[in-house]
Design goal:
2 copies of one chain form a homodimer. The longest helix of chain A is centred in the N-terminal third of the chain and has 10 residues. A 7-stranded mixed sheet of chain A has the order 6-5-4-3-2-1-17. In chain A, strands 7-8-9-13-14-15-16 form a 7-stranded mixed sheet, covered by helices on one side. A 3-stranded antiparallel sheet of chain A has the order 10-12-11, with helices on one face. Chain A is built from 11 helices and 17 strands. With about 350 residues, the first copy, chain A, is of the alpha/beta class. In chain A, about 25% of the residues lie in helices and about 25% in strands. The interface between A and B is medium-sized, with 31 and 31 residues.
Amino acid sequence: MLDVCLLGTGGMMPLPYRWLTSLLLRCDGSNLLIDCGEGTQIALKEKAWSPKPIDTICFTHFHADHCSGLPGLLLTMGNAERTEPLTLVGPKGLERVVEALRTIAPELPFDLRYIELSGVRERIERKPYVIEAFRVNHRVTCYGYAISIPRKGRFDAARAKELGIPLQFWNRLQKGETIAVGAEGDDVGPGAVGTGIVARRRGKTDGGEKTDGGAHSGATAGHMIYTPDMVMGEARRGLKVTYVTDTRPVPIISEYAADADLFICEGMYGEPDKEAKAREHMHMTFVEAAKLAARAKPQPRQMWLTHYSPSLLHPEEFMGQVREIFPRAYPGKDAKTAELRFEDEE
Amino acid sequence: MLDVCLLGTGGMMPLPYRWLTSLLLRCDGSNLLIDCGEGTQIALKEKAWSPKPIDTICFTHFHADHCSGLPGLLLTMGNAERTEPLTLVGPKGLERVVEALRTIAPELPFDLRYIELSGVRERIERKPYVIEAFRVNHRVTCYGYAISIPRKGRFDAARAKELGIPLQFWNRLQKGETIAVGAEGDDVGPGAVGTGIVARRRGKTDGGEKTDGGAHSGATAGHMIYTPDMVMGEARRGLKVTYVTDTRPVPIISEYAADADLFICEGMYGEPDKEAKAREHMHMTFVEAAKLAARAKPQPRQMWLTHYSPSLLHPEEFMGQVREIFPRAYPGKDAKTAELRFEDEE
């Protein structure tokens, strides 16, 4: 399961009734935040969530409404006694910007680690998340993010039985572990074979082939090696959330919104006749955002709009035309949440 | 009249129900802000006030809860199309800190001017305000502020009549202007005499003395010079607000709180038994703050407590013992306002 919370929906400046746009993802006890404007830590507190389990913060770009809340959040994480390192992801210049902001938060009980993006497309694995960053088109360098939770294939118990794999190894194989068993039938431990992938490769290089019993012949004579692919089916559809803000509509957005469970997209202006203004300020109208969702192949399952202009008081008033273009579009609102579940997940 | 608004009352971190401690003063169309933590601009917006007329921002010190809201506020002031320069006052290092924060607000349509404090006591005139800064005792360099609105003496119309000062000059004399009149009775303009103070000094240096007509004999032969002191009484009691936060109790605080119309003072902890904790963190309990007010001579007219620990939920519960020490003590709360008026002001 992936918990999604749109902490705020405002652009430009925080308002008494609207926090700045920011997204929190929660999965397997590790939280990932995208953007952190002024007040984001308060929005988090309003949900009664601690900032302590935030392991990764991704920044789309360095305009203040997307990063001015960072020093306060870091201090609050420190006060919550976080000691594990925090990974920050963002455009080139990230370390310079964050270190400047840290002038007012110089002492923290945890380390900051920086991943600076420079390519048009980048891919980062931060378990349980796979983070894909893609460059969009704003006044300054700006990235969109597609965050995925991959899902392994199904465990094939019948096959495991057929191959004679001892029951006590099933759970470890499901977790992706490779198991080497000594000549006496003892598990010689993962140290003997390294990671699953390496073990399989070694097995092949060493001319290993399936025995009648179904186990790989190991690198060391007399050992049996059980690998996950022996009992796990093809990887299944995972979960994916795509987050895009502060950009003109560009095709790469549709590409990364494709097949997303949730596509969160900026809509600075509700009124379709504000397209000229959107163009001038390098933002989008609701209609432009909806067209991006409609063009994605396959289309995202739903879209939430966000990053409203302070002058846009009632986004829901402009949804009619949007839904003609992309029916599963909804106006984002502060603290809007979704619990995304894998297909057939309880 | 001096409008006072305690925009927030929190210490350490902003909370959903409590903004960070910050004070807004409004007088004669010019606003002065003390401290600007994360969310201060939202607190301002909640009052439906524009940040545009803020001409001066004073910082007590550079901990994030007192200055992290600055970049956002500056951008919002820019969006409100402020073009007049903004003066920032704060401890040494101010320009370095603010310029670092401005990494995310690099382009503003107005200039920033810096006044860095280094002395134990400093005095700055920023009309209509007189700003007195005094060093307190925190973990980092920290200043308290006493902000005064001076009040001129009363205009003595009988005396002006007696001195034969033409009626058309009365209003200008009341405003503090010095008026030079040529031999033909024409006002030769302020350019002829410079500022009032200089003119009077010049008059004296040049051996000027009162004529029978009552006007000073000017620097230039044949000119008459009318100065405000000829018709204005002694300066009257003005207005004064003293603001102190993030410090242990030190005598200089009572000194500057003396005779204040309003003394706003930190009380991080309500529980008197938290004095050891207050000492450790270089903060104060309510009782310690009350003692500072009680020791001031003359005592301030009232005191508001602020800068509460996030763990302090109901400050009003601890006011009993405080009022035994200083009866006119009140727990500050977000958006608490006062309209301070001069004595006998309508």
